[in-house]
Design goal:
With 293 residues, the protein is mostly helical. Helix content is 64%, strand content 3%. The strands form two sheets. Strands 1-2 form a two-stranded parallel sheet. A two-stranded antiparallel ribbon has the order 3-4. Strand 3 and strand 4 form a beta hairpin. The chain is globular.
Length: 293
């Protein structure tokens, strides 16, 4: 069985709802479900978050980041941190904990290393998306950071299935990004991307990720960004292109990191993208640190 066949098989299982989450993620899933209840109050949310130490630590850390702590007053209580971040951000972090624990159950050192790199990439994309949404595309920054946090959740699920499908993590890429590639390479690329996207979409659905975010992640999978970038999907794609840490699973599939544009720059009103990123460097770094698991 090759990678394309494995992706088709996993996608079929996922589409049928056959997705199992580790017991270690159960508390985070419970928090996620509770926050969907319109009758859930701050106090109840705070108590729930405290039952999951990993989630509680990230909630407090993000609440104290430059982006969410404009006053400079640090908080140490989970309840106050929940209040400062709001339910949407807590839900995003709960989803992130589920994704991180999904891949973290592997005993294979290489799989754990890939999971660490995948989360580092996700943290960079989320932090950049938050800034780009506010300063460039004028999208909702909280929705943008949520999209960045969960955009690789399908890849985390694939990592969790690597024991059953070793071909998913073969060292040789399926295709190479060279000029003059034939129709066979293009067909392989399309089929592989379709399989990866199908798995990701199924996992996102299982986690009840909002349609708007799923659609934005679909723009990232397709890789077509409008210029100048304006939509949530454009925001996510631009953040992904600028992230210094790449998604290791995509690097395996496409040699050379297709879609990487770290030198991209453009005029945004009276400013330039490079200038905006330079001004926001402290904010981005503080969010990345807060999001690290």
């Amino acid at each position: 069985m090759d990678r394309r066949e494995a992706l088709k098989s996993i996608a079929a299982e996922a589409a049928a709802g056959d997705i199992a989450f580790p017991t270690s993620a159960e508390v985070a899933l419970r928090v996620q479900r509770a926050l969907d209840d319109p009758d859930c109050h701050i106090e109840a949310a705070g108590r729930l978050v405290q039952t999951e130490p990993l989630l509680a630590a990230r909630v407090v850390a993000l609440a104290n980041s430059v982006a969410f702590n404009r006053s400079g007053r640090a908080v140490t209580e989970v309840r106050i941190a929940v209040q400062r971040l709001g339910f949407r951000m807590i839900r995003a972090l709960a989803t992130a904990v589920v994704a991180r624990q999904l891949a973290g159950v592997s005993t294979n050192p290489r799989h754990r290393l890939l999971a660490d790199q995948l989360w580092e990439h996700s943290a960079h994309v989320a932090a950049l998306a938050h800034v780009l949404a506010r300063r460039v595309t004028k999208q909702d920054p909280e929705t943008a950071i949520f999209a960045g946090v969960v955009h690789e959740v399908g890849a985390f699920y694939l990592l969790s299935r690597a024991g059953d499908y070793p071909c998913l993590l073969v060292d040789e890429p399926v295709l190479e990004t060279v000029d003059g590639g034939g129709d066979e390479d293009e067909g392989e690329e399309e089929a592989t991307a379709e399989g990866n996207g199908a798995v990701g979409a199924a996992v996102l659905k299982k986690l009840s990720v909002p349609d708007k975010v799923v659609e934005a992640i679909g723009v990232l999978w397709r890789g077509y960004m409008a210029l100048p970038p304006a939509s949530l999907g454009d925001t996510l794609l631009l953040a992904d292109s600028l992230a210094p840490v790449r998604s290791p699973l995509r690097e395996m599939i496409v040699k050379g990191g297709r879609g990487r544009h770290t030198d991209i720059d453009m005029v945004i009103g009276a400013d330039t993208l490079s200038g905006i990123l330079k001004e926001s460097a402290d904010e981005v770094e503080s969010m990345i640190v807060a999001l690290r698991f």
